[in-house]
């Protein structure tokens, strides 16, 4: 038995909506058949970014932005199905994460917008959405949710493996044979790098980390950044734009006091991402041989080089070396999580999120 499922993810980087058309073979794994990233029109992107911070009339604005998000996703799904000559009724479900605009585990909630009912209406496919709230209701962080998928897909019965997703934020999963899977958000991934290069060079991201590589990281600044209490807080923990944002960075730079060239700050921010990830793995006592990287950060050559150095003798590679395209891991995870929900099987890992127990995640919007 196998199933067609579509995973939809738009992460904290706000670069676009990732669609992954998958064929799930419950006993053998998951095949990626087709995938696409739908870039956000600038107006929607700006509005989603603005909605991540407190603002005026936000309930109405979030309602409108959520519908625009669903319309864009539905168009992308129609195009994907046409390209693959598939009909909506052949698809078991769409697993749609939606766009996080607030993540407050300390208050017990996390808000993803993306009008799942409208998405079901436009696509005529059942939609599973709202994956985080049940874990939060059970006392968990509601994040990260991908470790269960990493375990299902990449666990090795003999060797410890680490999987690190570097999106806007970075989260890691440690797969140790015979032990509960652990994982948490290590801190910022690309978010600060994107924001700094955008502010100084008008680019959306630092292609292969070249601008960072042209500068020299300031040891003093990196040390100060790493002193933020988030990095030493024990797991379970998760974070987002409401904490690590341009305001946080401005404040850090003010306190630092020294004038640094913009490229040196980019280099320091890259160092922050690399060192916070490496420290998190080392603090976990990771005896692993292989560290697999996925997410957009896997395309940042400079970041991978730093991780390779910091994590030696462990071998750092992208998940491509484990047979999974690093760009589509997260979207595939939400296709899988939708299937888990429909099977009434759990999607969270209590040792990761801190929830009281395993829970079935998601809300179902019939076709
Ligand atoms: N060629 C590249 N060179 C350097 N960085 C890149 C490159 N391609 C992508 N990136 C980085 O990856 C980011 C997008 O990564 P991704 O889509 O995994 O993050 P995301 O959407 O925030 O997902 P999530 O937060 O859920 O993990 C971009 O914003 C950019 O910083
Ligand atoms: Mg993305």
Short description:
Helices cover 40% and strands 23% of the residues. It contains 14 helices and 12 strands. The longest helix is centred in the N-terminal third of the chain and has 26 residues, at 58-83.
Describe this structure in words.
The chain is an alpha/beta fold and 367 residues long. The chain has 14 helices and 12 strands. The strands form 2 sheets. Strands 1, 2, 3, 4, 5, 6 and 12 form a 7-stranded mixed beta sheet that branches. A 5-stranded mixed beta sheet has the order 9-8-7-10-11, sandwiched between helices. The longest helix is centred in the first third of the chain and has 26 residues, at 58-83. It starts with a strand and ends with a strand. Magnesium ion is lined by residues 11, 13, 15-16, 18, 167, 296.
Keywords:
367 residues; alpha/beta; Nucleotidyltransferase, domain 5; 2 domains; 7-stranded mixed β-sheet; 5-stranded mixed β-sheet; 14 helices; 12 strands; 23% strand; binds adenosine-5'-triphosphate; binds magnesium ion
Bound molecules: adenosine-5'-triphosphate, magnesium ion
What is the CATH class designation of the largest domain? Alpha Beta
Q: Give me the number of helical elements.
A: 14
How many angstroms does the end-to-end distance come to? 21 Å
Which bin fits the share of residues in helices? 40-55%
The shape is globular
What Rg is obtained from the alpha carbons, in whole angstroms? 20 Å
Largest sheet: 7 strands, mixed
- Count of discrete structural domains: 2
What name does the CATH topology of the largest domain carry?
Nucleotidyltransferase, domain 5
Given as residue ranges, the uncertain stretches (5+ residues, pLDDT < 50) are: none
């Amino acid at each position: 038995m196998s199933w067609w499922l579509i995973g939809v993810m738009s992460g904290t980087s706000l670069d676009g909506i990732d669609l992954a058309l998958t064929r799930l073979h419950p006993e053998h794994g998951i095949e990626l058949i087709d995938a696409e990233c739908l870039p956000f029109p600038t107006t929607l992107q700006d509005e989603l970014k603005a909605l991540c911070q407190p603002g005026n009339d936000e309930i109405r604005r979030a309602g409108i932005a959520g519908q625009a998000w669903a319309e864009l996703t539905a168009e992308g799904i129609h195009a994907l199905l046409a390209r693959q000559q598939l009909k909506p009724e052949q698809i078991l479900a769409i697993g749609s994460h939606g766009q996080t605009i607030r993540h407050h585990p300390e208050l017990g909630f996390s808000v993803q917008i993306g009008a799942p009912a409208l998405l079901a209406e436009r696509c005529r496919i059942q939609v599973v959405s709202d994956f985080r709230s049940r874990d939060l209701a059970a006392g968990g962080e509601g994040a990260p949710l991908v470790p269960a998928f990493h375990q299902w897909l990449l666990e090795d019965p003999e060797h410890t493996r680490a999987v690190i997703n570097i999106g806007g934020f970075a989260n890691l999963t440690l797969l140790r044979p015979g032990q509960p899977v652990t994982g948490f958000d290590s801190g910022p991934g690309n978010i600060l790098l994107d924001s700094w290069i955008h502010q100084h060079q008008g680019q959306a991201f630092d292609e292969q980390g070249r601008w960072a590589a042209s500068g020299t990281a300031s040891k003093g600044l990196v040390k100060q950044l790493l002193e933020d209490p988030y990095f030493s807080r024990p797991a379970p923990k998760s974070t987002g734009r409401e904490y690590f944002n341009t305001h946080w960075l401005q404040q850090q730079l003010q306190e630092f006091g020294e004038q640094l060239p913009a490229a040196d700050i980019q280099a320091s921010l890259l160092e922050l991402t690399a060192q916070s990830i490496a420290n998190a793995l080392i603090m976990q006592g990771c005896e692993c041989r292989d560290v697999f990287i996925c997410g957009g950060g896997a395309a940042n050559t400079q970041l991978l080089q730093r991780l390779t150095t910091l994590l030696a003798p462990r071998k750092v590679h992208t998940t491509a070396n484990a047979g999974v395209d690093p760009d589509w891991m997260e979207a595939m995870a939400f296709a899988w999580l939708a299937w888990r929900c429909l099977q009434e099987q759990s999607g969270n890992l209590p040792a990761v999120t801190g929830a009281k127990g395993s829970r079935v995640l998601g809300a179902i919007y019939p076709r």
